[in-house]
Design goal:
With 420 residues, this protein is α/β, with parallel strands linked by helices. The longest helix has 24 residues. Helices cover 33% and strands 20% of the residues. Strands 1, 2, 3, 4, 5, 15, 16 and 17 form an 8-stranded mixed sheet that branches. A 4-stranded parallel sheet has the order 11-12-13-14. Helix 6 packs parallel to helix 7 and helix 8 runs antiparallel to helix 9. The protein is built from 11 helices and 17 strands. Strand 6, helix 2 and strand 7 form a beta-alpha-beta unit.
Length: 420
């Protein structure tokens, strides 16, 4: 954020008018006009035109605006004006260092997470499904963003992962075994303020001795957690890699399958029938293959990339609903969303198709139907991007302005964290 001038000192040594002099997070207010750019419309087309925002809503789309007195005018010449991106698989509070563990101070994690939230905005992510956090810091971060205490994307939070004793990422989870205990664990997350539940249904690759083919939680245990989510008026998402774990999750009634490495055509048909969507998370696997210090982990990732590419081609052929998510956290920053989009483009989709998924389709999958599109009455989540990302996704690394629920972050003026 930009520096704020010091408040004048009062005679008693305190700051005169201190509450008014405190720096604040940008907030929605007044009329904002974004002019001279190309608008990315909900149908995927680009058209020259202007955009008007008032408060936290889009009010006018297209054509030339008659500038209203008092409006803030943002020039977008040479830029694409598009909806903010939605990340459907993030972990903004899992920003631990290699030597740290579950005893790391919550306040330290919260400070780092607030920086991660700002970096997400800088990247162009205006909404995210935070799908497993550190000791409920994710929920507190969500609330602080809502209240305007810190800047960040709108968040839907899962609270703590729920895992079996010794399961995937167990040091950071709420461990539970048996139907009675998993019900209690689910209720604890709801009590803490979680928007949905995250079930760890299989092993993964968080630790070198982890095994992504291990099935974790029985069908009965998964069903119990989904029942608790439903009773609270929400849904569950499941981290699952092997076939049997995916089948258990879909049979139990989860809303989404995360990773889904060994998804089969038969289970994909079940997902179609039950309106379950997939978030494949390619970027983290590619990162592990290229950078992990363990040869075993790199070899696993290289094999998995081939399997996931074949799996996702099947998903595309069947027309199964899918979303885009980074798995940002300990391994990756939020800017990996560009790498995720590029990985999907390599499988035959156009840049324009992928942009539609990371905005409108992602928003719709999570019920944010008034977001993810430039349309009158929709939430004012808007990006101004240098160049044309429908031709080259590399342009998504040149976000010049992020508008999050009407609050304007003009990175051309703000020296906020450098490049995303």
């Amino acid at each position: 954020m930009p520096p704020v001038a010091s408040a004048p000192e009062a005679a008693d040594g305190g700051a005169a008018g201190a509450p008014e002099a405190l720096p604040s997070v940008p907030s929605a207010g007044g009329r904002v006009e974004i002019v001279g750019g190309r608008l990315l419309l909900p149908d995927g087309s680009l058209t020259a035109g202007d955009l008007a925002l008032e408060g936290d809503r889009i009010t006018e789309v297209g054509g030339k605006l008659g500038h209203r007195a008092g409006a803030r005018v943002l020039e977008a010449g040479g830029c694409t004006v598009m909806p903010g991106m939605v990340d459907l698989h993030s972990h903004l509070t899992l920003v631990l260092r290699d030597h740290e563990g579950p005893d790391t101070s919550r306040s330290v994690v919260a400070l780092r997470a607030s920086r991660q939230a700002l970096r997400a905005l800088r990247t162009g992510i205006t909404r995210c499904r935070d799908i497993g956090g550190y000791q409920h810091v994710d929920i507190e971060l969500r609330d602080a963003i809502r209240e305007g205490v810190v800047p960040g994307p709108a968040m839907a939070c899962a609270g703590q992962f729920i895992a079996i004793t010794g399961g995937h990422a167990w040091p950071y989870t709420r461990e539970a075994d048996g139907e009675g205990e998993v019900r209690k664990a689910a209720r604890e997350q709801i009590r803490a303020g979680a928007d949905f539940l995250k079930i760890v249904g299989s092993g993964g690759v968080r630790l070198a001795d982890d095994n992504e083919t291990a099935v974790q939680f029985s069908l009965g245990e998964m069903s119990a957690m989904v029942e608790e989510a439903s009773a609270a008026g929400t849904v569950a998402a499941a981290h699952v890699h092997p076939e049997r774990a995916i089948r258990n999750a879909v049979t139990a009634g989860v809303r989404s399958v995360e990773h889904g490495t060994h998804l089969t055509p038969e289970i994909a048909e079940m997902m179609l029938e039950r309106s379950v969507f997939l978030v494949p998370t390619f970027a983290i696997t590619r990162f592990i293959a290229a950078h992990d210090p363990s040869p075993m982990m790199r070899a696993w990732a290289e094999r998995t990339i081939v399997t996931k590419r074949e799996m996702f081609r099947m998903v595309l052929d069947k027309g199964l609903a899918w979303g885009i998510g980074t798995d940002a956290g300990s391994y990756l920053p939020s800017s990996a969303i560009v790498d995720e989009m590029r990985a999907i483009c390599e499988l035959g989709l156009s840049a324009g198709d992928v942009l539609q998924h990371v905005t409108r389709h992602n928003a719709d999958l999570w019920g944010w139907s008034d977001a993810g599109r430039l349309a009158s009455g929709c939430v004012a989540d808007v990006l101004v991007v240098r160049g044309d990302p429908t031709e080259d996704l590399g342009a998504m690394r040149q976000v010049e302005i992020t508008v999050a629920r009407g609050a304007v972050f003009d990175w051309r003026e703000l020296a906020a964290d450098g490049p995303p």
